[in-house]
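Memo to structure team: turn this sequence into structure tokens by end of day. - J.P.
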Amino acid sequence: MKIAVIGATGLVGREMLTVLEEFGFADHTIIAAASARSAGSSLPFAGRQLTVLTVDEAIAQRPDYAIFSAGAEASRQYAPRFVEQGTTVIDNSSAWRKDPSIPLVVPEINIAAATQAIKQSGNRAIIVANPNCSTIQMVLALSPLQREYGIRRIVVATYQSITGTGLKAIRQLEAEEGGTPCADPAYVNPIHRNLFPHGGDFLPNGYTTEEQKLIDETRKIFADPSIEVSPTVVRVPVVGGHSEAVNVELRRDYNLADVRRLLEQTPGVVLQDDPSANLYPMPVTAHHRNEVFVGRLRPDPSQPRTLNLWIVADNIRKGAATNAIQIMQHLLKP
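Reply from structure team:
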């Protein structure tokens, strides 16, 4: 099988190569592609070096799957061309997420949306959208609650790692930590010893694009447009992953012991909830892990049928690379 990674030289693209190796794809033909300026360079993979191709060269290779992490503009330009020649695309950008004809998938929740789309296409190649990193971890942790009780409203504040902005943000933090000016900063504001409530671009409604994704994508993945979502996105000087303080109002009464049991039984979720032992999710322990970690479970004393949770995941792993490759794994199953 041929698998192409588009945007392979970026932070997520490199992690995709790592996850492909870890998930047992080292013996397949892996095609690394990026922009023309990176073509001809090499990337390590499974003890060998991959020569980076242009995207046009990758299309000519006719891969079975193309996993994109090259930005929305590149995805809109190249993903349809891959599909035309029989390649199924799993796209990590925002390009296709809101398209009602494109499945938006967290495989533990709704892989059926992708398999159904393939059937409807006559078993031809399709595009599958990978959700935003902050959405993935939140909906996976909340998915058993949605199934068991139904969700009426979510209030979420995210504490998002600078890695969500890419290598440029990491270089800015490192420069600021070293006390040197950053020649090409990712953020207008300093990030070292600081945080700011600004992720993406501000919209006319006062919310940011990152916040709007949490609203739109949650409803699409759960197939429930009635769910109310009130998000605030905050960027923090952390490398290991995203954290979220989530307040969720359910449609039916819950029992906290049952909620714990449901979370413990949910694939891809790890319950870390023993405050007496100082056990709760943290980015430093979620780093390089593929699971979503949940803790600080407690009833909301101000509101009936409402629960507080703290959710942490490595945004480059489960929030991007791992989720995309898990989608491919599920599509490969007979």
